[in-house]
Amino acid sequence: MAGKWQLKDHEKERALFANRLFVASGVVVFLFAALLLKLIDLQVTQYDYFASRADGNRLHSQFVPPARGLIYDRSGSLLADNQPIFNLNIVRERVEDLDQTLDLISTLIALSAEEREQFAQRLQRRRVPFSSVPLRFVLSEDEKARLSVNAYRLPGVSIEPQFVRSYPSAALNAHALGYVSEINRDELDGFDDQTRENYGGTNHIGKTGVERTYEDLLHGQVGYEVVEKNNRGQVMRRLERTDPVAGRNLTLYLESRLQAVAHEALGDFRGAVVAIEPSTGGILAMVSKPGFDPNLFVTGISNADYSRLVTDNVNTPLFDRTVNPYPPASTVKPFIGLGGLQLGFTDQETVIQDPGYFRLPGVRYRWGDYTLRTAIGGGHGETNLQRAIFQSCDTFFYDLGYRMGIDNIHDFLSQFGFGQNFALDIAYARTGVLPSREWKQRTRNEPWYPGDTINSSIGQGYMWATPLQLATATAIAANKGKVVRPRMLAAIDGEPYEPALPDDGVSATVQVADSDHWRYIEESMTMVVHRPYSDVFRDYGTAYEAIARADRQMSYKMAGKSGSAQVVSIAQDILQSSDIDISDLNKDHALFVAYGPAQHPSIAPQIAVAVFVENGQHGSSVAGPVAKAVIDAYLLDILQIDFAALEVDPDALLSDAGATEFAAATNRLSSSTEHLGHRHD
Amino acid sequence: MSAAAGRDFVRQSQLDLAQPRRLRSVWQVVHIDPVLFVGLLLLCGFGLFVLNSATGGDFAIVRRQAAIMGGGFALMVVLAQFDIQFYRRWAPTAYGCAVAVLGLVLLVGVEKNGARSWLDLPGLPSFQPSELLKFIVPMLVAWYLASRPMPPRFKHIFWAGLITLVPAALIVLQNDMGTALMVTMSGIFVLLLAGLRWRLVFTGVLAAVVASPAWYLFLAQPHQKNRILTFFDPYLDPTGAGYNIIQSQIAIGSGGLYGKGYGNGAQSHLDFIPESHTDFILAVLAEEFGLLGVLLLIALYLFVIARGAVIALNATDMFGRLLAGSLTLTFFLYLFVNMGMVTGLLPVIGLPLPLISRGGTAVGTLFIGFGLLMSIQTHKRGGNSR
Q: Which chain B residue shows the shortest CA-CA distance from A230?
């Protein structure tokens, strides 16, 4: 050991150490220099790049979606509202064990396998890190409470509010109003740049009905804000903001009380009711039954609900029967009769002898009287136009139609909107068919045969019309020729809305030279409802039994016309899939058009109605009472016209009581349209 | 030494007694090195200042950190009262105890942050025994090599290596690679300062370079591979493994030359910087004070390191020199690894920035080291190099 000590040379060792320390110091200085170069690279050379990256990190320009315009009915009831809902969202990055978290959530609230599946799909999509992904829409108060209490066990899970469309009347107005739902890929692709920008913060778009037609008015203008966000995407503060412009509030002509009455009156039948205010063309009711709950679509309809709606081939709840064409059958008779009068093919007195069938000259085939098919047989005997209308005599119209020819029928009926879409804001309505030589040649590549004319003269064969078209034609008849265009929108933000008429060559009035023809037709249609039974064979109105006789207290007169349309064919898949009795599906469709009050000395017709009852079989007895219920509700309950009081002194309105009563009634009438203007603030 | 020189020495020492002795005596008596003390005070003050912004003005955290630092200073001063020869005498015993405790940790240790390195004994605050090895290992290696010829021979290198690697291996078993690496380096620093031949140094470096691909392919754990990959390209996984370094670089780069101002660091205050109180606090500093702020920090560090080097150079014996040099270099390695990691110069290794990052254990270890440095500086035997 001692030898080793002697070997140590302290000065030399000290020098060695100093040398090593010197080298180490050099290395330290070198490494600091490298660090400095790196810092200069980051903070000086690349400063601009990193500065903008930092701003990009924290500053986010985001859209502020506008509040969607509300929709009111004519009386100010809210048809479409915006409701806050609370959604359960998850930030995936903040959840450690997703399955465990989902299992825990499902012990707190009902969470279907489908919802978990949809959530998994949403997670798969490209998204910003730390963005929240919805697991469940629309939490109830109870569910919110249970989740909040357990929030500490659920990191990364949050309850967030959102405003969505809500339809308080549910199925009642579903078809007319339509619904909003999530914007889909196709719609996004169809946007131009400006629209895409405007929808930047919007999730929903109108898909059908008014929601779709007036999407531009309802949507509003998107706002913007620049916010500072932290690393979890939480907004820390707002730096700039351009407020969104809310969508416009719309008031429709629709009267939800009338909708409810029509809905109720149709009972268990499938069918449609359209009611129009003749003076404006405003659509007072537009019901297709069965309906569906439009609220289901707003937050994304479940597969089960959707397949239930679309696989029901018989009830077809999503299908809007008000704008779908059916054979109008005898409901076209007043219009053809009027054409015969105007064009001189018949007059008010001309009588034909009806044997119960019609034959073309030189043809053995008999066109039977369809109306009498199930009755005792035989004909109507001596029949003029009036009787042919209130008794719905086919033979008379076979003859008249044959003599008029399809060209005259087509030209005259087209003035009432048959074969066209007269509606101003129901673009999705179908046009039906008002057949013509040209139409048949074009669509079937066949010439027009005289027999085709005969079928058309009783509204069968190639003739098809929608309930909306029938209501429109009836409203024009109620106006005695003044053409009105059906429309939904009455006011925007409380300001009455008068749309510009499209330049589509539609004449403002139906060309009828002698106004007595109108009186005559109204009289005939009134007889359909009011002409009672008498000793004369087949001399009563077809709807007398079901309407005037059923309500002997009826205080006003109603003009109407029934129709029973043959069911053309039933799709094979319906026959196989349905549990409904097939014989029911073969039954005729029942139709009824009507307006009221008719033949009133002082009050013009206030409402025109078309009723379509699928497989209802009897126009007068099934569809007639529905029309009666709707007109009653409108005239007596909504407008509150007291016809009995008005008739105290029918000749002179000068007497005090009568004048006051009348003034009151007319005030109610005018105020019913006037109050549209200042209902909403 | 000649007689004349001896006389001179006597005279000088008398002169020395007359003047510098009084100067020296104030600090020698309290055993504090004023230069190092001031340097550390400035560093700690700056650290608290940055921490205050990094925590968003959370005064409770800052106050707690200040208390820990105060405790650190106290510990340093207390340790400095003991003569460095005392530590030298007790080094083998301390080493033996520390290794025994490391073994105990393997049996009854508590896991925190993935490393089973904590000892939670009743009646004692929980602590990481592995931290102690950061100065006990260089101490024993210095003890061993100081009494052997320099440069060390192969046999001595072997034993010094064994002294270093046994605790390092135990720490690896605790799954704490960072500490194991620092402990190993502190031992290697002693060897390097003791004059390990350059030939061997370069051979070692070369061997490490050659072995590293093999390590990467066969031994590295997935998260370690990930760190290496993201070091080369953080954008391979910008929201995962690369997120920290990307956000940290954005913070540093956007600070520019002068910074965004105290408390205005958007990256840190909006929580884009992960671990902004601890490992990544340099990003907060660089964002708010810019390049100039980082330069100030580097200057303070350099000051402390330079003082450590001076103490090492002036130490009266080889044990003190080796220990002081190793402690100083370990301190540098600490801060450089952190700064390199945060700026993207080095792969991510979870080490705090000394005296700036929040945390107690690291501060304690550092001040023990500084206490040893002060002991080396203030307990001298009359200028004799032995």
A: B270
Report if pTM > 0.80. Answer: no
Q: Is the dihedral of CA B161, B164, B166, B168 positive or negative?
A: negative
CB atoms A17 and B329 under 8 Å: no
CB atoms B195 and A17 under 8 Å? yes
CA distance A468 to chain B (A): 58
- Looking at beta carbons, which residues of chain B come within 8 Å of A47? 253-254, 256-257
DSSP label of A125: S
DSSP A180: E
Cα-based torsion angle of the residue sequence A499, A501, A507, A510 in order, rounded to the nearest 10 degrees: -10
The helix or strand, by DSSP H or E, that contains position A13, with its residue range, turns out to be helix A10-40
Averaged pLDDT, A192-208 = 84
- At B294, list the tokens: 């980082």
Nearest Cβ partner of A35 from B313, B318, B340?
Answer: B340
| CB-based contacts of A681, cutoff 8 Å, min separation 6 | A494
Distance in angstroms (rounded) separating the CA atoms of residues A539 and A109: 68
ipTM of the complex: 0.89
Question: How far does the CA of residue B317 sit from the closest CA of chain A (Å)?
Answer: 9
- Note whether A281 and A674 are within 8 A (CB): no
Determine the length of chain B: 386
Q: For residue B61, what are its two tokens? A: 């955290």
Which of A6-10, A310-314, A391-395, A408-412 is the least confident region? A6-10
Stretch B53-67: mean pLDDT = 89
**Closest Cα partner for B229 from B220, B342, B179?**
B220
**How far does the CA of residue A27 sit from the closest CA of chain B (Å)?**
10
Best of B252, B282, B300 to substitute, by most chain A Cβ atoms within 10 angstroms, is B252
> Tokens 């509204």 map to which residue?
A459
Q: What value, to the nearest 5°, has the Cα angle with vertex A86 and ends A85 and A89?
A: 135
The Cα of A54 is separated from the nearest Cα of chain B by a number of Å equal to: 6
Residue from B293, B280, B258 nearest B353 by CA: B280
Give the nearest chain B residue to A12 (CA atoms).
B150
Tokens of B197: 């031949």
* Interface size, chain A vs chain B, as Cβ–Cβ contacts under 8 Å: 139
Task: Say if the Cβ atoms of A20 and B325 lie within 8 Å.
Answer: yes
Q: Residue A67's Cα: distance from chain center in Å?
A: 21
- Cβ separation B252–A51 shorter than 8 A: no
Strands A235-242 and A223-229: antiparallel
pLDDT tens per residue, range A5-19: 445 678 888 899 999
Work out the number of other CB atoms within 10 angstroms of the CB of residue A427.
9
Residues 6 or more apart whose CB falls under 8 angstroms from that of B64 comprise: none
Q: Bridge-partner residues for A285, per DSSP?
A: A275
* Sequence letter at residue A376: I
**Token representation of residue B370:** 């500084």
**Distance (Å, rounded) from C-alpha A501 to C-alpha A499?**
6
CA distance linking residue A21 with residue A9, whole number of Å = 18
Radius of gyration of chain A, Cα coordinates, nearest whole angstrom: 37
| A chain contacts of residue B286, beta-carbon cutoff 8 Å | 39, 42-43
3-state SS assignment for residue A433: strand
- Collapse the DSSP code of A644 into the 3-class scheme (helix H, G, I; strand E, B; otherwise coil) and give the result: helix
pLDDT in tens, A549-584: 998 889 999 999 999 888 765 555 554 555 556 667
- Beta bridge partners, A592, equal A562, A611
Q: Would you call A54 and B148 a contact, using CB atoms and an 8 Å cutoff?
A: no
Type of residue at A677:
G
Instruction: Flag whether residue B383 sits within 8 Å of chain A, measured between CB atoms.
Output: no
Question: What's the one-letter identity of residue B247?
Answer: Q
Just list the catalytic residues of A: 330
Which two tokens mark A245?
A: 């412009």
Q: What does the DSSP 8-state code read for residue A370? A: G
